[in-house]
Specification:
Elements lengths: L2 H20 L3 H13 L1 H24 L1 H7 L1 H28 L11 H13 L2 H10 L11 H34 L5 H21 L4
Length: 211
């Protein structure tokens, strides 16, 4: 493939990746929820964790692990239900925080590493993401260039970078709005209820999903 052709292919990949990243989905809802309720830095930490999960999925796709999960119904179900259970746990945590509120503002997470770790779990425990990359990345692979796994990892890194930039921008925007919202009297309890509701919906949707 000529240099110009490779440049065009990469640009098309970035455009398609950005469009898919912006589309409403579990990851972007997770970032929005964390940013509004916990602040912009919490959103950025969560986004960084989610993007680390993307690296795990793209590496797995390149090494063929995702294909094994796709072929194994049991493995798919185990990962799927583990992810759903984790999301329902987060929903329960949000409800517990809501019940413990003594002020008008929501309790804010100060441990950015914990939020980063939460983002990783959220992403890695979703087998649908693994299958997405298994189907998406090969469309931009040039077999004639050789070293297909390395090409997939490279595309995964490109996807990760654009996703992190978009998620971080959303985090700053949503966090700024959230800072203003939480100043309203009594709003904290409702924010945590809303967060619990979103986590529950995503978790149930994941549990009921199929390949």
């Amino acid at each position: 493939m000529r240099k110009l052709d490779r440049t065009i292919a990469i640009n098309l990949f970035i455009a398609a990746s950005a469009a898919l990243t912006i589309l409403p989905g579990p990851d972007i809802l997770f970032v929005l929820t964390q940013s509004i309720s916990q602040g912009k830095m919490a959103g950025v930490s969560t986004a960084t964790g989610l993007c680390t999960g993307i690296l795990v999925h793209t590496s797995a796709a390149a090494l063929g692990i995702s294909a094994l999960i796709y072929k194994s119904a049991l493995a798919f179900e185990i990962v799927k239900y583990a992810g759903a259970a984790y999301l329902l746990y987060l929903a329960w945590q949000a409800l517990r925080e809501s019940g413990e509120l003594v002020s008008s503002t929501p309790v804010r997470e100060t441990d950015n590493f914990a939020l980063y770790r939460r983002g990783i779990f959220m992403n890695v425990l979703n087998p649908k993401v693994a299958l997405f990359f298994l189907a998406f990345l090969p469309q931009f692979i040039n077999v004639e260039s050789g070293n297909v796994p390395l090409q997939m990892i490279f595309l995964g890194v490109v996807f990760l970078i654009q996703a992190w930039l978009i998620f971080s921008a959303i985090s700053v925007f949503a966090g700024t709005i959230g800072d203003k919202i939480v100043q309203k009297p009594g709003i904290g309890r409702y924010i945590n209820w809303g967060k619990a509701g979103i986590f529950t919906i995503i978790g149930v949707k994941l549990a009921l999903s199929h390949k």
